[in-house]
Fold this protein.
Amino acid sequence: MNAPFSKSAAQPDVTSAVGEKLPLQVLIAAPRGFCAGVDRAIEIVERSLKQFGAPVYVRHEIVHNRFVVDRLREKGAVFVEELDEVPDGVPVVFSAHGVPKSVPQAAEDRGLSYLDATCPLVSKVHRQAERQIEAGRHIVFIGHKGHPEVIGTFGQVPEGSITLVETPADVERLQFGPEQPLAFLTQTTLSVDDTAQVIAALKQRYPQIVAPRADDICYATSNRQAAVKKIAPSSDLVLVIGAPNSSNSLRLVEVAQRCGTSAKLIQRASEIEPSWLDGVGTVGLTASASAPEELVREVIARLGEWREVEEIPVVTAEEKMVFKLPRQLTE
Ligand code: 0O3
Ligand code: SF4
């Protein structure tokens, strides 16, 4: 393998026999952490709090990160799962993952003022879904069952007009005929490699299927996976800062593991066990699209309690994407 850094010789223990700290290289992936959609979603809650005053209700975790949610809660945000839990007369924000059409409709019916923090790249998939249905095609959607983004996208089109597949085996089980007009769309936070296999299976089984230009996996998801592919082969252990209910976080752990490197998902630095560093000379570090940079610094500080840390940034792409805020917050 053409790794940019060689794995350090195995370290016998956390400290040397005389007690001084042993060195630890930390390969820090870039890009990592907040994407443009997450930045925008958090800004929407913060500006709403300033503009309308607390409380501002948020339907679902604004992004899948407990630290972010807790910090906003301290500022006056109230997180609920369903619109029914929002009292009359207070503003509500919809999370970055998107919502079925029935949700803004229900808010309007109740006269609630709402702000939609759905990432524009998720909204783009919503509009594509509508267009494919208008064109008379059935949609095959590649995504993870039960994920809020999947529920939101399914809720853009009539029931029965969209079918979920997760794996090539699911594609084999589809019952569509060779003449059936079909289109596929994908969740934005999938594994780039797994999705390519599902798409290949779909195209082979249904050559008539209409495809988006590539897939709908967003720039941030694919950039973070590519960065992990770069650091994992040179690391003895990869730490991914993220959450267990975060699709893009889980995909980063898988990417590292598929490089043959042990990888762990952590929400906070306090979860790191000193024993994880036994025999480890190089740690790869990344953060999911919903994990703030503070948590990266927290992890580096914790590693520094046990080892002489050398931080090595590994940059595989630059990101300049910025999304506009909703007009209600900028006028
Ligand atoms: O979709 P995912 O579970 O990865 O969501 P996160 O962790 O909140 O990250 C932001 C991504 C998003 C809002 C949908 O693309
Ligand atoms: Fe948008 Fe991609 Fe971020 Fe999801 S991961 S919020 S689609 S930029």
Q: What stands out?
A: The chain has three domains: 23-34+219-315, 36-116, 120-215.
